[in-house]
Hints:
alpha+beta; Aminopeptidase; 7-stranded mixed sheet; 7 strands; 25% helix
Amino acid sequence: MIKPVNKVEPVGVAHVDVLAALHQQCFKEAWSSEAFSSLLVTPGTSAFIATKANTDSPLGFILLRAVVGEAEILSIGVIPEARSSGVGGLLMKEAAGLVNIQTLFLDVAADNESALRLYHREGFEVVGRRVGYYARGTGVPVDSLTMRRDLG
């Protein structure tokens, strides 16, 4: 288990390669640097990276878009060796601390048990379901759960 996290800091277009590398470590279908770049130039979009104490080695990231008091977490990931160490919760707290945000939303695969545990622990509740939303190669698609957390 990796502890403690040194810091969580905002990042921008200059960090798209780091974000893409983190995404690749966290997900089978990774987003490219270009995908992060196109998202980060969209108004209201923010990204944060959590780093390991005394090394600045990236451990995880969160990408979200805020509009009129609400924000959607577009992606959050923690590298495998740092999971269950509090990094995800720290990133969630950063998202919840954004100015003028009263509600956070996210979508998660219904079979992603570790993420669901984190989101429930952080106060999210399921408010919707998209049947067969996530393709799984040649396997059966997995439902997406839309989750919401009220902050105020």
